[in-house]
Each structure stands twice: as structure tokens, then as C-alpha cells.
Amino acid sequence: MAFSRAIRPSDSWEIPAELVWEILIWLPVKSLMRFKSVCKAWLSIILDPSFAKAHLCGFQGLLFIDPYHSAPKHCFFYVNLDNHPSELRYHLTMDHGDKRMGRTNVVNGLVCFFYHSYSYLCNIATHEIMQLPSSTAELRARARKLGCEILSIGLDASWRPVDAPSKKRIDDDSVCYNGVLYWMESNMGKEKDYLVAFDLAREKFQIIPPPPEEEDRPFSVARFGPSLTLTSWVGDGWDWQGFIFRCCNDGIGRDSGWVWTNEREFEVSLMCGYKSYDPCFRGVLPNGKALITDLRSGKSTPSPFYLFDPPKGEYEIIPVHATTESASLFNNEADVLYYKENIISLRSLISNTYVMLGPLVAFHLTYSKIWIAPILGRSWRSTSPILGLINHKRLI
């Protein structure tokens, strides 16, 4: 395209930095990676910590993750929540050959893959991969106890031991709230289940009993918007009717003690227009909406999912159009996770360049099964948010 002499740009012509910022902030990470090479001014904006933090608030959606861990690849598919209907698209493929690799959940766009004593941190959006240090703890054969280690990446050269609660078995996904990690503690039917909390600031464990009303029915720990909750399912036999939330106060895990609110029950029976509806509770998004899928939908495509707003009793159906590469996600076997694109490089995170995000911290739990789950907590050195990794490894 030829410019006329009147509007032809000169060497002094440039777009104001504020306008460039407003344009770039709306672009996905894939585009920003290419635009780093346009000019030094654009590179400076994209690498600016405040820009990275602002960009982290956008491009939120869901990740559908291939459930078959024994396959030679881990496939991540992305669905944008802003587009209705949405299309399932490839976001990342991790090829690990004949190794049976496990993976963590996704926190701030980061995921950790692990194999035996090796762990690899990966930014899903930028496709960066970095190996984490291996634990040097000596594990005894036939040991049946819970051991813990912690690693502040970029600050600690190696893992540090942390005192763990005795005779406790942690078998559920972790949840982080106000800088404290929470798990369900399973007693294999011998005793009632409890919550296990680990304070990242004080590096101490705490055992918390559930409310008396919850002791006789199964429940799970989850986040409901800005609060931590215990979630129970209600129904008649196999007829699932709804779910119950019981929220806690802001003093959770601190010296102020524990206060559980009255239970709030939400019916979901009106969410379907046909009798064959079989809802499956997948979790709660940061905005407080519950993610529910239909287990009885068609077998040739991922089912539509529902975003249910409990306070309003309203829901919206989000159909998902499958791609030809997503056959492994059929029959609702895929893991579904909330996801935010992260443009921050792993090197910058580890070197503490982005101080408002805090250092990267890994938390390592050693027990009798292989499992890793990531958390979002707060730094033990400051009140800044951090990323943590929880690693359950088989004792040798």
C-alpha cells in the first residue's frame, strides 16, 4: 500500500506508547510473542511487569486436558469463555515418548510435568519449559509416613525439610486461600475426614475438623468466588439434585480461629430441558459460578457445559465445537481447569523480576503415591502471591 506524500510517515512519526499499550493488552500471548521483535519500544512494553500483571487478568477460559497419562503426549485444548459458542482448539502438546509422565493442575498459566524424581515447569501459553531441582531426601524402603519439603526457586539452592503431621494421609486436590493450602485428609473409613492446612508464611501444618453438620456426609474443599467452602452433593440415591456450600470466614488458618457459615443449598434440577440430564459438578470459577457438565450427552463430541450462578439461580449453556484432533476428550473423561494466559517468562519469575507476583515456591509432599497438584499462595517472605507445586511421590 502506497502512502500519499501528505500522510507518508517520517522517521519522527510514532504511535503514542499509551495507545500501543491499550492495543497490545487485548492480544493473546501467541501474538505478543511475535510482536516482541517489532521494535524496542514494543518489547519494552510487553516485558513491563505492570503490563504482564494487567494482561494476566484477561484471556480467561477453560482448558480441556487429555486424560490418558500413559499416552506419549499430553494435549491441552483451550475454550474461550468470552465466545459463545466456543471451539475447542489446540493450545499445547507435550511429547514425552515412552515415559509415563504425570502433571499438575494449572495455576496462572503454569503447569508442572513430573517423572520419577524429575520435574519440569512449563508455561502453556509461551511453551517455555524449565527443569526443577530434584529432591535429595533419603527415603527408606517400606516407609509409610508423610514427609514434606519446600523450595523457593531462585532463592533456595535445594529443598528444605518441613515438619509434617504424623499419621496423616492427604489424597485430595489442594486449594489455596489467603496464603494457606488445604487438602482433604482421608482415613480410609477408619475415622472421619478432616481438613489439613499448611500456612505458607509460617511453614506450619494445622488439622481442622469440619463443621458438625458435615461429619456424616461426604464433602470436598473448593473455592466459591473469594471464599473457601466445603461442597456437598444432595440427591435421592443416584438422582443428583443439587449441591450445598458452607463458607468459612477470613480468619481461616490463622490464630483468629474458624467460623463456618450456615449452609446454602442450590438446586440444579431446572437446568435441563430433557429427562436424560445427568449433571457432573466440575468446580467453581473465581467469579463464583459453578461449572457443570452433562454425563449423558452425545458420545461423538464434548458435551456442552453449564455455568451456574447459585445466588441468582441462573445458568447459561456453552456449547463446545470439537476439532478433529480432540477425539480423546469424548465421553467427558477430560480434566477441565480454569485457565489464564501468562506472558511472564519462567526466567523472569525465577529471578524475581516480577516482584509484585512474588518468588516461585515449590512445596513437596512425599507419600505412597505419585501425584502433583499446584497451588496459588503467598510468599513466606512477603504478602505477594506466589506459585507453589505440591508433589506426592512414591517412597522407594
UniProtKB/TrEMBL annotation:
Name listed for the protein in its UniProt record: OLC1v1021859C1
Domain F-box, first and last residues per copy: 15-55
One Pfam family this sequence matches: FBA_3
Coiled coil (UniProt feature): none
Organism: Oldenlandia corymbosa var. corymbosa
Entries under PANTHER family matching the protein: BNACNNG10540D PROTEIN, F-BOX PROTEIN CPR30-LIKE
CDD domains tied to this protein: F-box_AtFBW1-like
